[in-house]
Amino acid sequence: MPESNVLQASHGPVRQLSLNRPAALNSFTAALHAELLAALDAAASDPAVRAVVITGAGRGFCAGQDLNDAAMVPGPDGHVDVGAVIERFYRPLALRLRSMPVPVVAAVNGVAAGAGANFAFCCDMVVAGRGASFIQAFSKIGLVPDCGGTWLLPRLVGRARAIGLALLGDKLPAEEAARIGLIWQCVDDAVLMDTALALAQRLAALPSRALAETRRALDAASTLDFGDALALEASLQRDLGHAHDFAEGVDAFRNKRAPVFKDR
Prior knowledge:
45% of the residues lie in helices and 15% in strands. The protein has 264 residues and is of the alpha/beta class. It folds into 2 domains: 6-204, 2-enoyl-CoA Hydratase, Chain A, domain 1, CATH 3.90.226.10; 208-254, Lyase 2-enoyl-coa Hydratase, Chain  A, domain 2. β2, α1 (30-45) and β3 form a beta-alpha-beta unit.
């Protein structure tokens, strides 16, 4: 049987997903999309999973769309319907990542190009090896950033840097990506996975539902006025205040013990 396009491993409450097309720098195909989305859905529905780490097998994280994949074959009019590829594969992937009930950490090894870079930015936190790089490669082939790139880039680094990255398509080293706030952390390549897994274990010990709602509130606030953002905070706090984890956290604080969070 052919090897899976997505390798899975469990580290206690942390589920590790590794894109597994190393000969093609883990570039996306229809088959890889299907397996990755299924793996994310499985992690989302498994109550034992409290954090997810995504990385790439071999020397790269993800080189974006595989232009040789059957999904990119021209139609009868001689053109590739790239919009259909986005709607069929990348939109569901981006929405799944931004709606996971647990935190998702991207451990970026080597190159993350095109949709591969924006796929990483869809994750909650990005840790990259010092040898990693990020490339908005779209302008080189006459396209715009996808997999959420047009929404994510200006929110992560501001319009000026987003425009520069998107229009020029230059390679951005991981250290510079960390310096400008595009990613959470840059570490030595040798400790990348240990660092990412330790971060995921730390997140897994925190109240998962509150973390997911924090993500939702921060994303929503970018399109709300201040009063509406305050109203959303009140609504979320009302729900979370009736949940197990709030009572557990308060009791643990009062009794000077480690909390055991369960909500998800």
